[in-house]
Amino acid sequence: MTVTTPARRLVEEYYALIDGGNLPAACELMTEDVKLTFANAEPVHGRAAAEASIKYVLDHCDRITHRVVTFFETGDADGARTAFYEIRITYVLKNGKVLDNPGAVVATVDAQGRFTEQRLYGDLNEVFVP
């Protein structure tokens, strides 16, 4: 049985929007000053920079699918949430290659239900290989 918590609902909505090709709507689920870190890349700050960073990955794909495998969430006294989850991402690349990569994410969500930070850990090297 999957328990749907506030952060889990946000994560599922976020990935459904990205997988459905609606990156702008997905980024509206972030605070204006969000911090996003992809693997070992330098963090980017702000919603526009986060959207550009994600778009860079998506520009290499014909399709992408995210599946949350395990999910843990903690709450803070101020209503914020911290989520830790394992994810599988299927990339259908423009070069025809299909990758199924594991990853892990640490995300913080404010009391209004928006991402304030996402730290994504996984190997994206093959996504960028021609």
Automatic annotation (TrEMBL):
Recorded GO MF terms: isomerase activity
Task: List the protein's name.
Answer: Ketosteroid isomerase-related protein
Keyword Cytoplasm (UniProt):
no
Question: Keywords on this record?
Answer: Isomerase
The UniProt record lists the keyword Isomerase? yes
> Lineage in the entry?
Bacteria, Bacillati, Actinomycetota, Actinomycetes, Micromonosporales
Q: Which residues form the SnoaL-like domain?
A: 11-117
